[in-house]
Every structure is written in structure tokens, then in C-alpha cells.
Design brief:
The protein has 330 residues and is an all-beta fold. The protein contains one helix and 23 strands. The structure holds calcium ion.
């Protein structure tokens, strides 16, 4: 810097606003200043230096756009795909971040009744919240920063998770199946034993020539959770054979309700409306089903309509059903 320079003036808004600086207060020669109360629009800043005789230098200028509330309006909050308990942790699966999200903060209740906040970088898409209390909503908000920006801006209000933290139906539930549709020791309850990657821990439909081609084949799960404790289900996961040729499940329906489905009622007269109708592909051994409208009920029926296998086999290695107690949530 020219040693004759003594002071500087920073202008903005067509020189209607300014700040004065005395270089003697900044021995390093670098001045950092915060300009507050800027709006979300483009500004041109000018710096003019002065010597002791108040001779002015040429102005040097820079144009910059502060970002804040109205800049944020065009930035969507991150989405939560799944929020589910895994042991003592809530595992949150997030949607893709936009380029300008930098971090996401979660606020949740722990089993000890504490409110905890945890911050994660945008690069993380599956995060764990330790000791989270099940069946509670959680709050979250993200911070944003444009590529050229210096400060991050937090969205000034919390978003609520789309549904409470869900839990998985465990092996205290019972599973029944259409008569004559159990092959050897491949019992239906093996779809809930937690073992996802072993044929010997799967339900296999009949290999008997008289029964194997019969459809529908129906699995009924009694979650044993009754009344206000029945789960409201929103997510199911099918685990099939690690070998694509052994993935037989094709078109199916899922029903959720409070009266016991009869796995031998193959007319489905008493089943009501399915909460889901769809099909699995043979492309993956793990496939998710997500309900846009969650449904509460003690019983779940999976109605298999057909098979990719010409003999009509169905083989399900594990089935996960996630839900929450809606009356508990807040
Ligand atoms: Ca299993």
C-alpha cells in the first residue's frame, strides 16, 4: 500500500451510504468490516483512499449480492425419506441436497427426555441420532451458501419430519400363510427373524405339484400391537434371494387392518382396499415399498398374485414393516 495513504471511505448505494476507516487503526494494512442491514439485491461497493492532504485516489469498485431471506425463498429444505429406529439410534435417510445446502441440523427428543441438536454436513445422506425417542416427530433445518458466498444462512424456522420416527415390527409378531404353502422347514415366521441373507431363514411356498401354481398366496402378519398401540405403517422392505434367478415375487398387494385377515380367503372378499398394489423386479434383492398415505392396523396381509417362476414359487427371505404409534406422536 502506498505509505502516503491515511484514510479510506467505503461507499455503496450510489454513494448515499458510506463508512470511514483510518488505516492507523489497522496496523496489518488489512481492514475487515461488516456491513449490516443490506437487502437481498446487487450492490456496488466503492473504496476511495485519501492521503493526509485529503487527496482522493481513483475509486476501486466491486459488485456483490448479499443473500438472506428472499434469496432463501428459492431454496427448498432438504427432504426426509425415512426416519426409523435401529437399536437406540434413529437413522434418518435424506433426499438429495441442492448444491447450495451446506449443513442440516436436527432437533429431537431423547429417551431421557432431553432435547438434542445435531448438525451434519450436506454430503451425508444417512445420519444417526443417538438415543432418540421412538414415535416422535423431529425438527430440522438447513443452512445454505452460494458458491461464492462467505457466510451460511440458516432457514429461520424448523421443518417437521413428514412422520414420526418409526419402529420395525419384531419377531414377537406371528405369521400365517395360505394352507399348503409351506415347503419343508421354510416357515413363514422366518421372514421376521432378522436374518436377511440366508435361504434357510426364508419362507418358501409349496413345491408340491398340486399346490405350487395356486394363487394368490397370502401371508398374514399379526403385529400383536392392539388398540392405540397399533402401528401406522408407511414403509415395507422385501428381502429376496441374493441370486437374481431366485427372485420370484412379482405382482402383489399389501393390506393393513384391525380385523384378522384370513390367509385362506383367496377371494379377498373381507380384505377391504389394499394400501399398496405393485410389483417387484428381479434387479435387486432388497426392494422398498413406501406408502404415501400411511395406514394404521394390527394386521398386515401380503397377497402374492403371481411369480416370475414358471412353477409358481414364492420365496421371501425377510420382510420389514415400519410404522409409528400416531397417538403418541407430537
Ligand atoms: Ca429371515
Amino acid at each position: 500500500m502506498d505509505p502516503s495513504i491515511r484514510t479510506a471511505k467505503l461507499y455503496w448505494d450510489s454513494r448515499t451510504k458510506s463508512m470511514d476507516f483510518d488505516y492507523s487503526n489497522y496496523p496489518s494494512g488489512t481492514i475487515t468490516a461488516a456491513i449490516t442491514e443490506l437487502e437481498d439485491r446487487s450492490y456496488t461497493f466503492e473504496v476511495i483512499n485519501y492521503d493526509a492532504a485529503q487527496n482522493a485516489s481513483l475509486a476501486s469498485e466491486i459488485t456483490s449480492s448479499p443473500f438472506g431471506e428472499s434469496w432463501l425463498v428459492s431454496h427448498a429444505e432438504r427432504s426426509i425419506k425415512f426416519a426409523e429406529m435401529d437399536g437406540n439410534d434413529a437413522v434418518i435417510t435424506l433426499g438429495k441436497p441442492t448444491d447450495e445446502i451446506t449443513e442440516t441440523m436436527f432437533r429431537y427428543e431423547t429417551v431421557d427426555g432431553k432435547t438434542v441438536e445435531k448438525v451434519f454436513l450436506a454430503t451425508e445422506d444417512i445420519v444417526r441420532l443417538p438415543n432418540a425417542k421412538k414415535w416422535k416427530y423431529l425438527d430440522y433445518q438447513s443452512s445454505f451458501c452460494p458458491a461464492e458466498g462467505i457466510d451460511t444462512v440458516w432457514i429461520s424456522n424448523w421443518s417437521k419430519s413428514p412422520y414420526p420416527i418409526a419402529t420395525k415390527v419384531d419377531n414377537s409378531a406371528t405369521v400365517t400363510v395360505t394352507t399348503n404353502q409351506i415347503r419343508d422347514n421354510f416357515k413363514p415366521e422366518l421372514i421376521l427373524d432378522g436374518i436377511k441373507d440366508n435361504l434357510n431363514s426364508s419362507w418358501y411356498s409349496s413345491n408340491n405339484a398340486s399346490y405350487r401354481s395356486i394363487f394368490p398366496k397370502i401371508l398374514v402378519i399379526d403385529t400383536k400391537l392392539i388398540g392405540d398401540n397399533a402401528l401406522t405403517f408407511n414403509h415395507f422392505v422385501f428381502y429376496e434371494n441374493s441370486n437374481p434367478d431366485g427372485r420370484y415375487i412379482r405382482t402383489f398387494n399389501i393390506y393393513v387392518g384391525d380385523s384378522k385377515f384370513n390367509p385362506d380367503d383367496t377371494t379377498l372378499m373381507t380384505f377391504g382396499e389394499p394400501v399398496y398394489t405393485g410389483f417387484l423386479t428381479q434387479l435387486s434383492d432388497v426392494q422398498d415399498v413406501f406408502l404415501t398415505t400411511a395406514k394404521r392396523g394390527r394386521y398386515i396381509a401380503i397377497v402374492f398374485r403371481n411369480s416370475y417362476n414358471t412353477s409358481g414359487f414364492i420365496n421371501l427371505w425377510e420382510f420389514e414393516a415400519y410404522g409409528y404409534v400416531a397417538s403418541n406422536a407430537n
